[in-house]
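Dear all,

This email documents one entry for the complex benchmark we are building for the journal club exercise. For each entry we list the sequence lines for every component of the assembly. Then comes the predicted three-dimensional structure of the complex as a token string, followed by one or two observations. Please use this as the template for your own entries, and keep the labels exactly as they appear.
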Amino acid sequence: MSLVLDPAAQDLLFREARTANTFTDEPVSDEQIQAIYDLIKFGPTAFNQSPLRITLVRSQEARERLVQHMHEKNAPKTLTAPLVAILSADNEFQAELPYLLPFFPNAAEVFYSERSEREQAASLNAALQSAYFILGIRAAGLAAGPMTGIDQAAIQKEFLDDDHTVLMVVNIGKPGEDAWFPRSPRLELDQVVTTI
Amino acid sequence: MSLVLDPAAQDLLFREARTANTFTDEPVSDEQIQAIYDLIKFGPTAFNQSPLRITLVRSQEARERLVQHMHEKNAPKTLTAPLVAILSADNEFQAELPYLLPFFPNAAEVFYSERSEREQAASLNAALQSAYFILGIRAAGLAAGPMTGIDQAAIQKEFLDDDHTVLMVVNIGKPGEDAWFPRSPRLELDQVVTTI
């Protein structure tokens, strides 16, 4: 094998982990979220810009408002998940760059003076961090259910502000009964990789 | 601790792993790339759309053409890395959906009939897969050097076609001398997470 990552970790994060569609009612604690964040915050982003923002939906009232902006197939999952997170990109991330990038304090002025540049960078880098977050949930022994079948603009308007772009909603919890479909096929290497 | 992932795996993937700026000349083999792909291909994407495409730059000629489209600070790293990958999103990923999503064979017609919808989905989901790829490189005991300080449009024109959007270039190899800057600060949980 060419991997040095322990096989049990490979299974936990990738091979046996699955997108859960049902959950038990076991709660997900703030301590678990803290542990997940303290792991995935180290995942790389461009200039350490760290634009991911996470809105944890804990109140029943907020959850009911959220599912009104989701595809009808996704709403029931989010209504029953122990915890739900709205992931967004902060398009004004550059405000934190002097702290986040101490060796290049004027990076914001050089590279991100235009809002369009910031939006493009924030969406890409917050998406990277969304993947770290999904794997971090799995690292905590939980199942993630990421969904993009949602009305991103409506959720942004309902819960955030114009400086945030909603990327996805993630259900979080222990998998319940019949939690997933059969594993779908993957592309072969030669369908994905070209060598030049 | 709230994580079940082995601490050594946490270190390998997140805590001790760093974005490398220098590399040894030890080659990265096709077998290593196969092992990385066979792990990360299981990472979730919306409707299993799997839009990430990877262009491995192995010839000196292609590498020299590539660095002409990179920021001057990034070019030297890419000239000396054992292996370089261009990561792109396939905006015509829906062609593979009947194979990738056997339980919903007409998903392409329902959700991705417009090119603009495909481009948006491909960029987000290929970014998720880019993060899986970065962590997969680390899982193989290698260092990744992802870079967005590149002319994405020029690289697309030089090496790909109009159906692909370039996301980043990733240097791959064993870290060399003085491979990284000191670890930069991260945001605190309460700067990132809001509870509603």
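Observations: The mean pLDDT of chain A is 96. The domain at 27-172 of chain A is CATH 3.40.109.10 (NADH Oxidase).
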